[in-house]
Structures
1.
Amino acid sequence: MAFDNLHLEKGMYRESGKSFTQVLESIDPSEQYRGTAMEGLDAFQRQLKRFDIKVKGAGSSPVEKFFATMDSAVLFPEFIARCVRQGIEQDNVLPAIVATVTNIDAMDYRSIYSVPADDDKELKTVAEGAAIPTTQVKAKEHLIRLHKRGRMLVASYEAIRFQKLDLFSVMLRQIGTHIQKMHLADAIEVLTDGDGNANGAATYTIGTKPMSGTKGTLTYDALVEFWAQFNPYEMNAMIAPSDSFIKLLKLDELQNPLTGLNFQGTGKLENPIGAQLLRCDGVTAGTMIGLDRRYALEMVQAGDVTVEYDKLIDRQLERAAITSISGFGKIMDGAAKILVI
C-alpha cells in the first residue's frame, strides 16, 4: 500500500497553508482505505503503524522508536503537536464563549463591527418606492492584537529515549493546558476591556442604578436585573472566579434538591436564568461576566500549534519551542457585560 513506501522529509512541514498531516493526506488519501483494516486512521496514524510506533496503552513504545530511521524521525514533531493540542482541547472553556474562529495566514488582522441603534434593529414596513433601512458594517479602526503563546520544551535525548510515549504525552498535554489557559486569559481581557477599539464591556454594580440591593451581596433579584440588561441579546453564559461562584452557589434559589444532587454527582451546575456557568479565576475577583456567546467574541488564529521541527529531527530534541498564535476581537459591543458584586 502507498503508506508503506512514502519518503518522509522535514520539508513537509514547510508547505504553505498546509499542516504536516494535510501534506500526508494529499499523498496518501484516507478515502482509498475504505473497507480495509486501515479505515478510520488518518495518514499520520498510518505512518505510526508503518513504523510500529505505539503512542498509548500499556505497550506504548519508547521515545527512541521515533528515531530508529530518518523517515520515522520526521513524525516526531507532529506527535508532539498532537499531544499539545489534546491538552489545549481538554477542559477548554473557549468553545463555550467564542462565537466564531477565524484562521489567517498573516500577523495583522482587522475585523469588522456594527453598532446599530435601537431604531436600526427594527424591521420596519417599507412603503412602495421608499428607501430600505440600512445596517452599516465597518472595519475596525485598530488591528486585533495577536499574541504568541508557548512553552520551551527542554530535554536531552539521552534523558528521555527510554521513556514510554504514553508517559511523555502526559507532559506534552500539560504544556497544551498551560497554553489554553493563556488563550483564555487573553479572551477574558478582551471581553472586559475591549480589543483596542473603545469597546470595553458595560459594567453594572450592585446597589447602583439600575441594579438594586447592597454592594457586596449577591441576590437572585440582582441576577435577574443583570439578565434584563441584555435585551435584545440573550445572556446564555456566565464566567465567574471562585469567590463569585461561591456566592452564586449559596443563593436560596439554587438550593433545591435537583441542583444539589446534580452538583454532588457530576460536579455540574444547573444553569440559572438559562446561562451556562463557567469558572475562571482569570476574571477579576468579586465580578461576573455575562455574555451572549453567539455574538460576543471572535477568536483569530494564525496557524495551528507550531513545533520547531528542525531541532527535534536533526538534534534529537534538546530545546524546541511549542507555540500558538491567536487573538480575540469583540463582535457586538452589547453582547458582553460585567456585574460587580
2.
Amino acid sequence: MVEHYKDLRIWQQSVALAKTIYALADTLPDKERYGLRSQITRAAVSVASNIAEGSRRKGTKNLVHFLSIALGSLAELETQLIIASEIGYMKAEELPKTLEEIDHLARGIVKLQQTLERRE
C-alpha cells in the first residue's frame, strides 16, 4: 500500500499539472470566469484530490476506484482544453504540450491501477 500520497509520482505530477492549468485558465477571457475557466480548474484539482483521497481510504480496491475517478477528471480536462482551443481561447501552441502532460499522467495512473489490480 502507499505510504503517503505525496510520495506518489502521479500525485506530484497532478499537482504540477494543476499549476499549469491555473496559469492557462488565467489567460481565458473574463466572461469565462464561471464557465469554462471554472470547469478547467476544478477538473485539474480533482485529479490530485482523488489520488490523495483514494490513497487514504482503506484498501487497495478504494485506491483503484479513486484512480479511475482521477482518470475521468483528466478526460474532462482534456476535452475542456480542446474546446477552449477550438473556440480560440487558448494559443494553439499551448495545447499540444499540455495534452502531452495529461497523457503522460494518465499512463502513470493506469500503470499504478494495473499494478494494484495484479496484487489483489
3.
Amino acid sequence: MNGVNVRVIDDREASRWDAFVASDQRASNYHRYLWRQVMERGCGCRTHYLLAEAGDGAVLGVLPLAQLQSRLFGNFLVSLPYFNYGGGLAATAAADAALVGRAADLASALGASHLELRETVPRGEQWPVRTDKVAMVLPLAGDADAQFAAFGAKLRSQVRRPEREGATVERGGADLLDRFYAVFARNMRDLGTPVYGREFFRAIMAGAGDGAEVVVVSVNGSPAAAGLIVHHRETTEIPWASSLREWNRVGVNMLLYWAVIQAAIARGSRWFDFGRSTEGAGTYRFKAQWGAQPRPLYWHYWLRDGQALPGLSPSNPRFAIAIEAWRRMPVWAANLVGPRIVRYLP
C-alpha cells in the first residue's frame, strides 16, 4: 500500500522492532517486543507482530497483535490484551493505514469476530470506538516530600494510619512475587475474577528486568496489600494491585499506593499511571483523590459483518452468575482453574 510493505515477523527481528519503538516518543511500554514474549510464555497466547517497511527496508511502523481464541469467549485479535495500551505505531499516515489494513485482513483470514486496537488518540468516524474508559494519571513532584505535602490533610492521615498500626513496606523484584501473588490471587477470587498464573508475572519480571518492581505492605509479618509496577521512560504504571479485605479497615491500600508513588519518584518518573477506570465509578474517585486526572482512551474496532461491539467485561450482566459462583470457590481451586480461563479474556 503506497509503497509500504507489511509482514508478520518473528524473534529474529526483535532488535529492529525495538529500535523503531525506542525512536518514537509516542510509543507505550507495551509496544516493546518483550511483551510478545510475556504473552506467549506467560499466558500461552498466539501473537502476530506486524512490521511496516519502506521499499528500501527502513522500518516505518509496528502493530503488536495477540489472538485470543476459545469456545467460551470466541476468537478475536487485540492490541494488546491484559494492558491498557497498544495499537499501531507508525512514522507516516501511509504506514499506519497499511498496518491496520493488514491487521483487519489478518483478523478476517483467521475467522476472528473482531479486532480491537487500544489507543490514546481517535482514528475517525470510520472506526467504531469505545470511550467509556479513561486512564487516571498523576503528575509527580520532583521529590517525595513535596508530593506528600501536595495531598490533602485527610489523604495524608489515611496514608499514615497503617504505619501507626504497624504496617511495613517492602520493595523488590522476583523475590517478592510469592507474597504479591498470595494477596493478588485471593483478592481476585473475592472479586469473582479469574486470576493470572504465577508464570505470567514471572515472565514480566524476567523480561522487564529493573523496569518492573513488586511492592508489598505487610501487617504482623503477613502480606496485606501488594502491587506490581512497571516503569517506562517518564511514566510508572501499576497494572496490578490488591489488598486483603480484612485489612482494608486499616487502609493498607492507601499505604501501598503511597509506596508505589514514592518508588516512581525515586525512579525519576514524571507521571504515575493508576490504570483505567470508568468515569465516576468508585475506582475513578479513589484515584482522583490522589490528584490523578483522566486521559481519554480510544478502543477502536474492526468488526466482522453483523458483529456488535464486544462485551467481555465483568460489568456485563450475563456474567453475574459466574462471578458470584467464582467468589464461593476455594482459593486453591480458583488459582488452579483461573489461569486457564483468564488467558482468553482481554
4.
Amino acid sequence: MKIKVKPEDFIVREKLKISFSSDGPYEVWLLKKRGTTTLDVISDISKKNRIKLSDISYCGLKDRHSLSFQFISAPKGAIKKTRGVNYELIPSGYLHRQVLPSDLLYNEFDVVVRDVALPEDIVLKEIEHLNRYGLVNYYDEQRLGSARHKKGFVAEEIVKKEYKKALKLLIATPSKWDSGKIKRFRRCLEENWGKWIPCLSLAVFEWEKRILNFLVGREFSKSTAKKALSMVDPNIMQLCFNAYQAFIWNETAAKLLLRYFAEDELIKVPYIYGKFYFYRDIEDDLLKKLSFIEIPTISPKLKLKGLLRDVIQEVLSERGINSLDELRSHIRGAIFRSHKRPFIVRTEIFYEVEEDEMYVGKKKWRLKFHLPSGSYATLVIKRIFHKEM
C-alpha cells in the first residue's frame, strides 16, 4: 500500500465558515501549492514581497507531499508577486481582519491509495466499519515533525530544564524527513557538537545563524543553552511544543481506549512513538459515550478530574513528569496552549477502485471524504489499510 506517490494523489481543499467581501483592509488569496510545505511557501512570499512573516496569516498547515488549496491573507496591497517555483496565489476577496485557524470548517480530501494487494471485499468491509463507527482521532506523525528522528522531544527536555539536550535535539539531530540543506547542517552539528564555526555557513535559517554566532566563544553551559533556545524562531518553538502535546494526547487516547477494550480486541497500527489502537466493532451505547469525550492537550493551567485526570497523570508520570504544574518552560514564548480535541472523529468515505496503472497487477483506491480541522486523512488510510502495514 502506497500513498503520496505523486502530489496529485493527495489533494486537500480548505472549506471555510466565512464569506469574503469585495473590499476591506485584508486581502484573501487562495494558495495552490504542490510538493512543498505551507511554511516554506509563506517564507518565500514574505521574501519576494518584502513583508514580515507576521503579516501573512493562514488557517492551517498542509502536507508537503500533496496538491493543496488553502487560504491565506495579508494587508491589502502587501502581496504583489504571486508565483513561486511550486505555488501560485489566486485573489479571492477581502476581509475586515486576517483569516484565522478558527475560520476553517473542514478539509476536503481526494486521496489515491496505490499498490493495494488486499482483496476488495476486505477493504470494503473496513470502509463500512469506519463509516459506521468512526475512529479514534489521533494526531498522525506529521504533527510530530520536530521529533520524527525518534530521539525525543524538545519541549519535554525544556520542561525538565535539560536545555543542552533540548538544543541538541532541535538543531543537531537529523531526520530522514529533513530537506537536503537542513540535513547537512544538522549532521555537521551532530559530528562537531561544541565546535560551531565549521557549521555556521551551512545554517539554513537566520535564527540558526543567530544561535551559532551567540555560542561561538562562549562556554557551552546550561545557561547559554537556555539563552540560545530563546533565540529560536517562535513558530518553530511552538511546533516543538505542539509535537509534545500531540504525543501526550495520543498516549492518553490509547490508554483510555484500553480502559474499555482488551488489547487483543483492538486493531494495532505502529507509528514512530508506539502504536495506534483502533476499535472495529463497538456497542452503540459505548460509541455514544466515547463520542462525547474531549481530551484536552496538556498545559500547566489545565484543571482535570476523574478518569481523564488519572490517565493523563499516568502518561506524564511515565515520562518523568510528576504533575501538570511542572509543564513550565521558563523560556520566553515557549508555552503550552491547551485546547480540547474530540476523542472520536466521524466521516463518510466515498470510493472508486480500479487497476493501478503504476503498479501492474495491483489495485488503486480513490477515496473522497472530509474531516474537521486538525484531523488527519493519513490516519483514515492507516485505519482502512492496516492489514498492509
